[in-house]
Amino acid sequence: MASRSRVIAVVNQKGGVGKTTTAVNLAACFAASERATLLVDLDPQANASSAFGIGDTPRQVYDAIIGRCVIKDVACPTALSHLHVVPAGQDLVGAEVELVSAMSRERRLESALADVREDYELIVIDCPPSLGLLTLNALTAADSILIPLQCEYYALEGLARLLETVDLVRAHLNPGVALEGIALTMVDLRNNLSRQVEREVRGHFGEKVYRTRIPRNVRLSEAPSHGKPIILYDIQSRGAVAYLRLAEEVLSGIGQVGPPRKPPELPAPGAETGESPVASGGPDLPEESDLSEGGVR
Ligand code: ATP
Ligand code: MG
User: Fold this and answer.
1) pTM of the prediction?
2) What is the 185 CA–ligand 1 centroid distance (Å)?
3) End-to-end CA distance of the chain
């Protein structure tokens, strides 16, 4: 019996803290434990798409957000039978601007995801590094948010603003959105500062901080250029072990009890070849995507 999925937005407006690495690898680990999983790339940088070797697709998340097609038309299969990816692309930059004057502009993603919520057990959204309209759409569509936090000096900077934004979303758009948890990323246990920041974060957020820490691990940074999540690139690596543990912790926090489930059949691709188009040159999209205007006021 199908049940509604859990939609988790991986969010932090700070750039380069491990959002995409966490979204990609958690989604892959959920899928590896036979949970029907959908990863939605909501960042114009399209790093989560290229992490699966998905390049320029004729249609992408933007088309679904503006209602030109449905999510099932854009979802791509992956090497993991239980994981589909909704890719992003450059068009998404336009969405931020075009949606400003649109009706229900914060609810576009929520509406787009509505008809696949019965099909997937977990829907993971990779957000861009801003609190703009795209992130607002993710927060409105989500049941919960997962915040990757890099254990460095300014880790907590910006977190207050993010949590304020979540409060605003809760008050006006999505009363049910919860804090799923905080994941410590790129942790270097030999580093005093890393340990100090960890103590501070745990002191502040207690049980909301996952016990599993994601270590700094070079294999994690190599995997995307091979178009693979870490569990398919190097299952023995410390990064793979950590993300498998984190996924287990997230799932036990959610209390998923249903039997393992396959994702739906995807419609036969139209203009596409049927295989995921392979990215030509890896993640060479613009670094800068400051879309912070047009967000929460
Ligand atoms: P953006 O804000 O630009 O979307 P992000 O928050 O999604 O960035 P990532 O892209 O996941 O962050 O990570 C930033 C960089 O750090 C990438 O090059 C990634 O490969 C690398 N990285 C992420 N996590 C780790 C880790 N645990 N160990 C080593 N490298 C990592
Ligand atoms: Mg990213």
Assistant:
1) 0.89
2) 9
3) 41
